[in-house]
Amino acid sequence: xxxxxxxxxxxxxxxxxxxxxxxxxxxxxxxxxxxxxxxxxxxxxxxxxxxxxxxxxxxxxxxxxxxxxxxxxxxxxxxxxxxxxxxxxxxxxxxxxxxxxxxxxxxxxxxxxxxxxxxxxxxxxxxxxxxxxxxxxxxxxxxxxxxxxxxxxxxxxxxxxxxxxxxxxxxxxxxxxxxxxxxxxxxxxxxxxxxxxxxxxxxxxxxxxxxxxxxxxxxxxxxxxxxxxxxxxxxxxxxxxxxxxxxxxxxxxxxxxxxxxxxxxxxxxxxxxxxxxxxxxxxxxxxxxx
Length: 290
Prior knowledge:
Elements lengths: L1 E9 L3 H15 L4 E6 L3 H6 L4 E5 L7 H16 L3 E6 L4 E5 L7 H6 L6 E2 L2 E6 L19 E4 L8 E2 L23 E5 L5 H18 L3 H4 L13 H6 L5 E2 L6 H9 L2 E2 L6 E2 L7 E4 L9
Parallel strand pairs: 1-2, 1-4, 2-3, 7-10, 11-14
Antiparallel strand pairs: 4-9, 5-10, 6-9, 7-8, 8-14, 12-13
């Protein structure tokens, strides 16, 4: 049984797909990367050459995210028969190992026991447009050094036990919480102002084609034009996040464990996901990790 595979679903997001392919393709080999090509986009197919590409229709339809996560859950369940660990998530979410651990992602997982689900600590990479003027041409971390804690993106995304994930992958039907200190889930949505605007334009088009309300479409509210707001104002407000000293985030993981509990009667489990209103400067050792 091989150690690890990575799974995502993508439609047209070439910028994020390139980062995803560099990260997991280098770590696991492209032959162990599985990409659902929503809409059978030619650019996605070309960029992902050497990966396992599953083309599906791109026709607009309601309940998009519910169907998407049913497909991802079933694919992960099947791949677990062949891989010890399967990483699943959106194309703009990447699991990284702190370089201080002195091991790569594949070796880290090779040393991780089976039959558990790992929840990396979520960090949102933010573009401080007031002080970061270097364009991204390759590596993202380096030109971008600022992150904010994002409990919403502390997702149970490394799977080696039978468990269903919720829509969006935020919760798992799994009664234990494993949060290794060295693991982070980097959310890249806000890593670059220009790429953010382009991605939001594409998502607004998708929701307009689907029609209906947020509830009807079962897509995140942030995909809808009316919830978008003004792009530059979204990035300008990052300067107001309180800058914290150092980079010791074990206290957040401790809070996650203290509040871990069943999510009502759903069978899923959750922890509190507060908005901390803070930011950190990533240590230089993270430069070039993604």
